[in-house]
């Protein structure tokens, strides 16, 4: 691992300033992904700016029911939070579906959003990878892509975003608070993560030196009936093959509103806006759910070894919609 | 250590980077250790190579096997992914610190009684993880297999009302809960059945 300097600023503005004043700086929070990537040689910062003690470690409720989650809140604290569990069960479930108890105790909300893909070519510095070294090519298209993207990928990259939490936050329409060199601003989800296009080295719309300070979850009363369902290769401690985050509002057999996002299928947590639009105002029946999901997945462009993800995503999503409708 | 760490390395703009070291006071098993560490050093390496505490084991060194699990401020973490330089003012407990003055920790006794290991390499991590896990369950933290994570929200109760999931309700740890909560600790000998039995005995 390349030697690096270590700074621990006292507050977020100081952290952003410290980052802007020095080249090749990265923020350190839980370290569960960054320290591993440094050890693998995938990233080699010259300076680490430790933001893990910036007191952004609370979940606060606003007068209208908005939950503001500090970027430093540990994954385990987020999943155990009574307000999160009651208002947005799929958010708590998504966090609990990820990683292990030890890693959830370390990992933060901000870091979870910014974790890098687990595509094996990205993590192996002996292999070409357009995301790690732009212009070197993407062996995954012809190689190991069983667990990679079926939606929104490009010739240069078929990586998936690994976060479970981000899928639920995308369904919930979370708003990410960011502090950069020009001060604070907000970025909506979906909208934080970007499709690879011909710049797969950019996972998000953030600029170097931008620091996530909080994530705001607007009130969404019907999300009290929501679910995160994840399919993976083993029962625990594995990344998603396919996952779904669904909130459903059904009255008198008709879908009044819904929120749907998919994980494990794209370079971004995939908000299923086509399916949502098809479902709103439609009959809450299995046939109606299947039609809406098929409309969403019509855009899928699977590779030879991950074509199974299309029917898998369809079946998991339809089943989850049925379960939520039946619980209404 | 307050504010910016005291670094003794060369100017960071130097072309050939040299190791950067930081002085800090580590608290391990209630002992204080003034220590100088390389910023790249993980807690696992500091414990084993500088402090002579070889209980925590290096298995995968990538956060996947759990053999390096220790407690930091009472929470179980992977010491192989924790940079030591971040840990001043933190209380670290390793397997060497689990026993009390009157004997082994109840989990240590239960692991012996239930034959919850074969080669023993994963055992220090299993023990520290189980200590942290039991505290998490006692605090009411849900897991991926806990039914009704939402706390019994009925369909018509969507409006925020301030009525919350009671945070102090301990979780009843059946086999499924223990297996899910311990999934960050691998055992290549496959002693899982007896590990679950040992933890179950202490959980009751």
TrEMBL record, chain A:
Gene Ontology MF terms: FAD binding; oxidoreductase activity
Domain spans labelled FAD-binding PCMH-type: 1-222
UniProt keywords, alphabetically: Oxidoreductase
UniProt xrefs under SUPFAM superfamilies: CO dehydrogenase flavoprotein C-terminal domain-like, FAD-binding/transporter-associated domain-like
PROSITE patterns: FAD_PCMH
Pfam families assigned to the protein according to its UniProt record, in alphabetical order: CO_deh_flav_C (PF03450), FAD_binding_5 (PF00941)
PANTHER family (UniProt xref): OXIDOREDUCTASE (PTHR42659:SF1), XANTHINE DEHYDROGENASE SUBUNIT C-RELATED (PTHR42659)
Protein's recorded name: FAD-binding molybdopterin dehydrogenase
UniProt source species: Streptosporangium carneum
From TrEMBL, chain B:
Family annotation (InterPro entries): 2Fe-2S-bd (IPR002888), 2Fe-2S-bd_dom_sf (IPR036884), 2Fe-2S_ferredoxin-like_sf (IPR036010), 2Fe-2S_ferredoxin-type (IPR001041), 2Fe2S_fd_BS (IPR006058), Aldehyde_Oxdr_Iron-Sulfur (IPR052914), Beta-grasp_dom_sf (IPR012675)
Ranges of residues in domain 2Fe-2S ferredoxin-type: 22-98
Identification of the protein by name: Oxidoreductase
Gene3D superfamilies with a match to the protein in the record: 3.10.20.30, [2Fe-2S]-binding domain
Gene source species: Streptosporangium carneum
Keywords carried by this UniProt record: 2Fe-2S, Iron, Iron-sulfur, Metal-binding, Oxidoreductase
Top-rank taxon: Bacteria
One Pfam family, short name: Fer2_2
Pathway: Alkaloid degradation; nicotine degradation
GO MF annotation terms: 2 iron, 2 sulfur cluster binding; metal ion binding; oxidoreductase activity, acting on the aldehyde or oxo group of donors
PROSITE patterns: 2FE2S_FER_1, 2FE2S_FER_2
Positions of the UniProt region annotated as Disordered: 145-174
């Amino acid at each position: 691992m390349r030697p690096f300097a270590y700074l621990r600023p006292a507050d977020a503005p100081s952290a952003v300033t410290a980052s802007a004043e020095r080249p090749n700086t990265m923020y350190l929070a839980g370290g569960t992904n960054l320290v591993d990537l440094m050890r693998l040689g995938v990233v080699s910062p010259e300076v680490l700016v430790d933001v893990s003690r910036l007191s952004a470690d609370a979940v606060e409720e606003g007068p209208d029911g908005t939950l503001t989650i500090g970027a430093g809140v540990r994954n385990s604290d987020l999943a155990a939070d009574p307000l999160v569990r009651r208002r947005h069960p799929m958010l708590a479930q998504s966090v609990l579906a990820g990683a292990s108890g030890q890693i959830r105790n370390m990992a933060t909300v901000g870091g979870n959003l910014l974790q890098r893909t687990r595509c094996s070519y990205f993590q192996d510095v002996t292999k070409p990878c357009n995301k790690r070294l732009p212009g070197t090519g993407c062996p995954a298209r012809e190689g190991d892509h069983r667990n990679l993207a079926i939606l929104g990928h490009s010739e240069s990259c078929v990586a998936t975003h690994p976060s479970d939490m981000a899928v639920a936050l995308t369904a919930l329409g979370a708003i990410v608070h960011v502090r950069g060199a020009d001060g604070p601003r907000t970025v909506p989800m979906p909208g934080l993560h970007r499709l690879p296009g011909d710049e797969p080295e950019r996972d998000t719309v953030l600029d170097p030196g931008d620091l996530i300070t909080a994530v705001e979850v607007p009130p969404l009363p019907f999300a009290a009936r929501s679910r995160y369902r994840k399919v993976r290769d083993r029962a625990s401690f594995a990344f998603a093959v396919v996952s779904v985050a669904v909130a459903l509002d059904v009255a008198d057999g008709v879908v009044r509103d819904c929120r749907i996002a998919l994980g494990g299928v794209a370079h971004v947590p995939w908000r299923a806006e086509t399916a949502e639009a098809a479902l709103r105002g439609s009959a809450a029946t299995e046939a109606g759910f299947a039609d809406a999901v098929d409309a969403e997945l019509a855009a899928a462009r699977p590779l030879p070894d991950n074509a199974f993800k299309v029917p898998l995503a369809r079946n998991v999503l339809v089943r989850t919609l049925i379960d939520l409708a039946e619980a209404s | 250590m307050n504010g910016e760490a005291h670094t003794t390395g060369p100017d960071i703009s130097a072309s050939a980077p040299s190791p950067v070291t930081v002085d800090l006071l580590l608290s391990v098993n209630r002992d204080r250790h003034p220590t100088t560490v390389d910023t790249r050093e993980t807690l696992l390496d500091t414990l084993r190579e500088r402090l002579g505490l070889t209980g925590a084991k290096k298995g995968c060194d990538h956060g996947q096997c759990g053999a390096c699990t220790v407690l930091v401020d009472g929470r179980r973490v992977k010491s192989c992914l924790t940079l030591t330089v971040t840990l001043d003012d933190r209380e670290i407990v390793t397997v060497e610190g689990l026993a009390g003055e009157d004997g082994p920790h109840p989990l240590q006794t239960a692991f012996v009684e239930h034959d919850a290991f074969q080669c023993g390499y994963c055992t220090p991590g299993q023990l520290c993880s189980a200590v942290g896990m039991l505290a998490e369950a006692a605090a009411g933290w849900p897991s991926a297999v806990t039914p009704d994570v939402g706390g019994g929200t009925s369909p018509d109760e969507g409006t925020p009302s301030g009525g919350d999931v009671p945070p102090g309700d301990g979780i009843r740890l059946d086999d499924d809960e223990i297996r899910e909560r311990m999934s960050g600790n691998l055992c290549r000998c496959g002693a899982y059945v007896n590990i679950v039995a040992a933890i179950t005995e202490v959980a009751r």
